[in-house]
Amino acid sequence: MSEVRATRELAASAEQAWLAWSDPDYVRRWWGPEGFTCPRADLDFRVGGTSLVTMQAPEAYGGMRLHNGWTYSTITSPTLIEFVLTFTDEEGQVLDPAELGIEGGVPREVPHRVDITPLGADRSQVTVTESGYTTDLARERSQPGLEQCLDKMQAIFAAEGGRASRPEPAG
């Protein structure tokens, strides 16, 4: 199986969970594994649009910035988002993962599917499926990062108590 999948229940309606993917201020709060930050989330959130999202490693890991392009093929509010993730340079030019020191098994394009399932007025479930990995090692390395991103997303809504508060813009 070439997939990596993670699911979390959120203390948020499906519409509120949708903000985690469609609002750049939310994306900056959860994108990247534990300890990583997201200094950039330039979203072009529309079918055919490409967002540029940057995660930055902690200083203990060298502080490297890793840029991703998310090119959207399906956006069905508030339940489904499909996009292809590519590794890019700072300007958004697509790079081969090997150029960034990412070991084999990670494809040049990583399809993503985000399913948001309403569970009531103030709860929803988010499942993210990444596909295209060609080795067990690539899947094993990707799984914890996806899990940690969704843990951070879950914590955002838990702290907000299910309210649809907009985060303060990063500045």
Polypeptide structure, described:
The chain has a single domain (4-160), classed as START domain (Alpha-D-Glucose-1,6-Bisphosphate, Chain A, domain 4, 2-Layer Sandwich). Strands 1, 2, 3, 4, 5, 6, 7 and 8 form an 8-stranded antiparallel sheet that branches. The protein has 171 residues and is of the alpha+beta class. It is globular, with a radius of gyration of 15 Å. It has helices at 14-22, 24-30, 136-160; strands spanning 4-10, 37-42, 50-56, 65-76, 80-88, 94-95, 109-118, 124-130. The longest helix has 25 residues, at 136-160. Mean pLDDT is 92; it is low at 164-171. The chain is built from 3 helices and 8 strands, in the order βααβββββββα.
Number of domains: 1
The CATH topology name reads Alpha-D-Glucose-1,6-Bisphosphate, Chain A, domain 4
Beta fraction of the residues?
Answer: 35-45%
- Structural class by SSE content: alpha+beta
**Kindly state the mean pLDDT as a whole number?**
92
- The shape is globular
Biggest sheet overview: 8 strands, antiparallel
Low-confidence spans: pLDDT under 50, at least 5 residues?
164-171
The total of helices stands at: 3
Over the alpha carbons, how many angstroms does the gyration radius reach?
15 Å
What is the tally of beta strands? Answer: 8
What top-tier CATH class fits best?
Alpha Beta
- The residue fraction in helices comes out at 10-25%
Q: What's the end-to-end separation, in Å? A: 42 Å
The CATH architecture is: 2-Layer Sandwich
Give the helices and strands as they follow along the chain: EHHEEEEEEEH
- The CATH superfamily is START domain
